[in-house]
Amino acid sequence: MVCLGNICRSPLAEGILAAKCEHLPVVVDSAGTSAHHIGEGPDHRSVHIATINGIDIGDQRARKLMKSDLEDFDLIFAMDSANYNNILKLASTDEDREKVKLILNESSPGQNKAVPDPYYGGDQGFENVFNLLDEACELVKNQLEKEFDV
Ligand code: 4NP
Q: Edge-to-edge strands of the sheet including 31-32?
């Protein structure tokens, strides 16, 4: 799960998908395309919306996406097209490029919608982000269950 700062959207995406996939043999992680917030915990507004939905993301720490992530992970979900394009810059093979997807194309196929950056807004923006990611992650989980025959 990849956004810009790895403090607002992608920590929520990581927490939501990990909670849905506890019964599956998958590793869920997140990272940012920028280095601005490396080492920081998630934004308190992300922690809050996760908590009231029963998900603890407080122990996550921001890190920057690395070239090796493109090799190590099978699926890479970008929160918006700017991040999508920056992720692709780290990919060196067609196999790596094919792993990179826009997360909201799971719930709105082909529409290339962005998970809006909630950083400069209020709590409402974080609730919206949570709901968008919850819907998309539910569909990702369904696909993974099929893939693992669970
Ligand atoms: P994120 O949100 O990419 O969802 O973590 C942001 C966090 C920080 C900034 C921008 C977006 N920033 O400009 O510092």
A: 31-32, 2-3, 76-78, 100-102
